[in-house]
């Protein structure tokens, strides 16, 4: 596929089945790093040991490195080593040697943000997945575990703080205003967990006492002006540490745990041993600059990276095909943690919404892959919603099948058995089997088969007999390279509600559909049952049920599982909207009635109401359709929004008023009120009411927190009232020096539903504050635009060419950031012919461009293939 004639450079694919253990191990490494942005000197001393009996040379990966000195056991043996492309190859007799290499690198020129780079005057590293080879020559693979000693030296005025993994052993001043620090990490680790930071940083210091009574020194390191925004991160860290002890029995191991925030970062954060490095957006938060969603994301990412200390670091991955071993499991753990901090139901709704927005389209498109892929060209392209979010769903299903206690027994065994080792997904499954006696042979299909299973459910009621029969079927759709699929075990939580009583008439039961067809019988029924199925979203599937609009409306009012209740409303809305797009006519009444009932139900909390009354996104509606026409979807959805706004005007205003006097407070209750407030404001604005812009502007101007302010700005950004420009200007003026908030300013405009958004985004890309060098800013403007269905797919707006130009421009500096934009164009097959052809043409233009990165080349070729 990649050696098609148009592709300039074919890149080789790595196959999972080709795994071989490392030829050489590196039990010890000592690094001596003299830091300087333009010329950093790295001296590495590797103790290497032959692994097994063979006569293969030592091969050390490098990426852009020039070896200017290599010694073997202290001697410069010029004939013993050679460069093989970017790698250093050394012929060695005997089994144990000391290899020393020296290289020079230039962090200030490193725009890819992999390896050692500079961000806002801070020198920092990112090594996962293959960044360590940009720092020094090393067998850069996760199954080579080493003990690290790191000596850092730098100018003291410019870099007063020097951090690395593990324990601080020594530090001191040197002549000429320089200083050094010596760090040693006693835990053997793969090189992707190596980290080093130098900068003018200050810390929020804390102490956590573990359950065995050890005091851990916690530090959250930021630029001095950001210190006031670190309290929430510190609280989240302490809560995570306590939670992992309580729920998984996992205690922290080192005496120090540091987190550093940097502004330029390709991902959310990185779990380097004892020295997590974070994108500043997941550390910094205060009420004036961060929304409730931002606070939640900080807590979730802090927890995620902290949890990796066990699921990822103490037990790491054998090879990168096992990535979901650490990521799926750790996402599941952070989801559980966040659910425990607030409303579990709302958290589940958010997680499923994210899965459907990011993972379902991936599974249905040209980049579909199983959670354990079979082949990759560039591993960075596999840090996907499938590996992370579907991976977490697979772990969640295991827990549902084995029960909470069985699952915990399985994780205990897994951690005990594989501590200090590099493991595989298979090892995890085997630990679950050994701990519980379960047979997970068929369950393994969740690791090997891509594609979202489609399940049908039909319930037949035999009223005289008081019986009902539930018939289930499954199909797993073909995906690239996997034309035929076997049936998977699909755990479905099922219950029945009585249509007359509105009560549960058959308690929740776990039904596992493990064949193409399955049947469940219920008896003793005294009224017509209504089916509640896939409760809690127990399986990551698409469900087609034979439930009528009336049944869905009934469930949206009565289901005792909050997720299923939300889901019934979503399905009711979706049925109606999809029908509307297909037939051009739509009866709004059932949706309006159901929304009215939810909105005015005094037993429901505000957070749940806010989630339940939101219409499915335009993208999600498109996912149900054959050939997507984003205009048609937009107009049908907008018409329903307007009607909901008008018909329920009183109810929205009432909801708005009752959430008004909400004092700022970061509690689930107050958060829910704020959420409902802005959701209600959105519907009031949709109704076209004369006072909507004034209401929104008042909320904007009077807000004492970013949630209300950004919420109002988002509503105004969709409209044409003069208040829109005023609010945007005020917001910009107030926050011009805070890049994370200016990101919101860009996003509010890029996400606007206005007809001229594509033009506005193109203009914003020429704004002095826009830069392709910063991944957050790229995501804020270009990433947001690419998910805005109406604007991106506006044929007159030139959005496809604009995004393609961005991909090409960014690819030269930062391939990972460029590659992340490809899937938006890669979905071309899903669209109506004119758009489909235009999207495809841009992909062809990209692939014909010389000098593409492996990252972009792989994604574009697969999208065309
Ligand atoms: N392991 C990190 C996480 O999920 C992911 C990550 C951080 C990453 N930085 C990266 C992946 C850079 C690829 C490239 O927590
Ligand atoms: Zn992770």
Short description:
The chain is an alpha+beta fold and about 850 residues long.
Structure description:
- This protein is of the alpha+beta class and about 850 residues long.
- Among the domains are: about 25-200, tricorn interacting facor f3 domain (Immunoglobulin-like); about 315-450, Neutral Protease Domain 2 (Neutral Protease, domain 2), CATH 1.10.390.10; about 455-545, Immunoglobulin-like (Sandwich).
- The protein is about 40% helix and about 20% strand.
- The protein is built from 27 helices and 30 strands.
- Strand 13 (about 165-175) and strand 14 form a beta hairpin.
- The termini are close together.
- Zinc ion (ZN) binds next to helix 3.
Shape: globular
Mean pLDDT across all amino acids? 97
| Largest sheet composition | 7 strands, mixed
The CATH superfamily label of the domain at 24-200 reads tricorn interacting facor f3 domain
Task: Supply the helix-strand structural class.
Answer: alpha+beta
Spatial gap, N to C terminus: 6 Å
Summed up, the helix count is 27
Q: What's the arrangement of strands in the largest beta sheet?
A: 5-8-3-2-11-14-13
CATH first level of the domain at 24-200: which class? Mainly Beta
Which molecules are bound besides the chains? tryptophan, zinc ion
CATH topology of the domain at 24-200: Immunoglobulin-like
- Beta content: 15-25%
- CA-based gyration radius: 28 Å
CATH second-level architecture of the domain at 24-200: Sandwich
- The total beta strand count reads 30
Unreliable spans are: 1-8
Percent helix, as a range, is: 40-55%
């Amino acid at each position: 596929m990649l050696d098609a004639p148009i592709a300039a450079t074919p890149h080789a694919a790595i196959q999972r089945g080709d795994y071989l253990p490392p030829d050489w191990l590196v039990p010890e490494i000592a690094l001596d790093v003299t830091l300087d942005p333009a010329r950093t000197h790295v001296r590495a001393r590797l103790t290497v040991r032959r692994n097994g009996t063979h006569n293969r040379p030592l091969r050390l990966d490098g990426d852009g490195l020039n070896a200017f000195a290599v010694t073997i056991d202290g001697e410069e043996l010029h004939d013993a080593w050679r460069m093989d492309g970017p790698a250093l190859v050394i012929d060695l007799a005997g089994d144990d040697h000391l290899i020393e290499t020296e290289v020079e690198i230039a962090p200030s020129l490193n725009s890819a943000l992999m390896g050692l780079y500079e961000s806002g005057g801070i020198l920092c590293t990112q090594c996962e997945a293959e960044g360590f080879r940009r720092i020094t020559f090393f067998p850069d693979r996760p199954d080579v575990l080493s003990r690290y000693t790191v000596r850092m030296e730098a100018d003291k005025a410019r870099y007063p703080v020097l951090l690395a993994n593990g324990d601080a052993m020594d530090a001191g001043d040197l002549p000429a205003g320089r200083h050094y620090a010596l760090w040693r990490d006693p835990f053997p680790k793969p090189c992707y967990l190596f980290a080093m930071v130098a900068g003018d940083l200050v810390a929020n210091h804390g102490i956590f006492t573990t359950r065995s009574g050890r005091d851990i020194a916690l530090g959250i390191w930021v630029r001095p002006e950001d210190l006031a925004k670190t309290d929430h991160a510190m609280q989240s860290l302490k809560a995570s540490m306590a939670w992992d002890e309580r729920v998984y029995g996992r205690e922290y191991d080192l005496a120090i745990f540091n987190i550093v925030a940097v502004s330029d970062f390709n991902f959310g954060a990185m779990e380097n041993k004892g020295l997590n490095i974070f994108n500043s957006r997941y550390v910094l938060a205060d009420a004036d600059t961060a929304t409730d969603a931002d606070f939640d994301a900080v807590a979730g990412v802090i927890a995620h990276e902290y949890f990796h200390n066990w699921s990822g670091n103490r037990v790491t991955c054998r090879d990168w095909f096992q990535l979901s071993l650490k990521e799926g499991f750790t996402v599941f753990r952070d989801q559980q943690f966040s659910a425990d901090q607030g409303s579990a139901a709302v958290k589940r709704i958010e997680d499923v919404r994210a899965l459907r927005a990011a993972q379902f389209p991936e599974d249905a498109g040209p980049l579909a892959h199983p959670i354990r892929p079979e082949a990759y060209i560039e591993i960075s392209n596999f840090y996907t919603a499938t590996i992370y979010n579907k991976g977490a769903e697979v772990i969640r299903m295991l827990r549902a099948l084995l029960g909470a206690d069985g699952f915990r027994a399985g994780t205990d065994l897994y951690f005990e058995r594989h501590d200090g080792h590099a493991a595989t997904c298979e090892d995890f499954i085997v630990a679950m089997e050994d701990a519980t006696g379960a047979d997970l042979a068929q369950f393994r299909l969740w690791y090997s088969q891509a594609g979202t299973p489609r399940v049908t459910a039909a319930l037949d009621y035999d009223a005289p007999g008081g019986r009902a029969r539930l018939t289930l079927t499954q199909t797993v759709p073909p995906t690239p390279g996997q034309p035929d699929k076997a049936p998977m075990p699909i755990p479905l939580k099922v219950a029945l509600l009585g249509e007359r009583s509105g009560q549960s008439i058959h308690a929740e039961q776990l039904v596992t559909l493990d064949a193409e067809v399955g049947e469940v019988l219920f008896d003793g029924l005294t009224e017509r049952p209504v089916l509640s199925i896939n409760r809690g979203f127990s399986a990551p599937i698409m469900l087609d049920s034979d439930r009528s609009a009336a049944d869905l409306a009934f469930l949206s009012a009565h289901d005792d599982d909050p997720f299923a209740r939300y889901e019934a409303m979503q399905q009711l809305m979706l049925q109606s909207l999809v029908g509307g797009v297909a037939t051009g006519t739509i009866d709004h009444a059932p949706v309006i009635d159901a929304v009215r009932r939810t909105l005015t139900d005094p037993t429901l909390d505000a957070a749940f109401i806010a989630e339940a009354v939101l219409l499915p996104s335009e993208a999600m509606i498109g996912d149900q359709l054959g050939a997507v026409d984003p205009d048609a979807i937009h107009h049908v959805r907008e018409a329903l929004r307007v009607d909901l706004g008008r018909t329920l005007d009183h109810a929205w205003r009432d909801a708005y008023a009752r959430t008004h006097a909400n004092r700022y407070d970061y509690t689930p209750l107050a958060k829910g009120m704020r959420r409902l407030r802005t959701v209600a404001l959105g519907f009031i604005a949709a109704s076209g009411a004369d006072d909507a812009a004034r209401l929104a502007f008042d909320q904007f101007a009077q807000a004492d927190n970013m949630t209300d302010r950004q919420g109002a700005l988002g509503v105004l950004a969709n409209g044409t009232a003069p208040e829109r420009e005023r609010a945007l200007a005020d917001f910009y003026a107030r926050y011009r020096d805070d890049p994370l908030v200016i990101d919101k300013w860009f996003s509010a405009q890029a996400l606007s539903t206005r007809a001229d958004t594509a033009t506005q985004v193109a203009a914003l890309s020429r704004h002095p504050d826009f830069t392709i060098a910063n991944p957050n800013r790229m995501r804020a403007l270009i990433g947001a635009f690419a998910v805005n269905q109406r604007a991106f797919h506006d044929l007159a707006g030139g959005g496809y060419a604009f995004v393609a130009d961005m991909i090409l421009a960014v690819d030269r500096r930062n391939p990972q950031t460029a590659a992340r934009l490809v899937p938006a164009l890669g979905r071309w097959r899903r669209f109506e012919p004119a758009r489909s052809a235009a999207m495809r043409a841009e992909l062809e233009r990209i692939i014909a461009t010389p000098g593409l990165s492996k990252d972009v080349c792989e994604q574009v070729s697969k999208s065309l293939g």
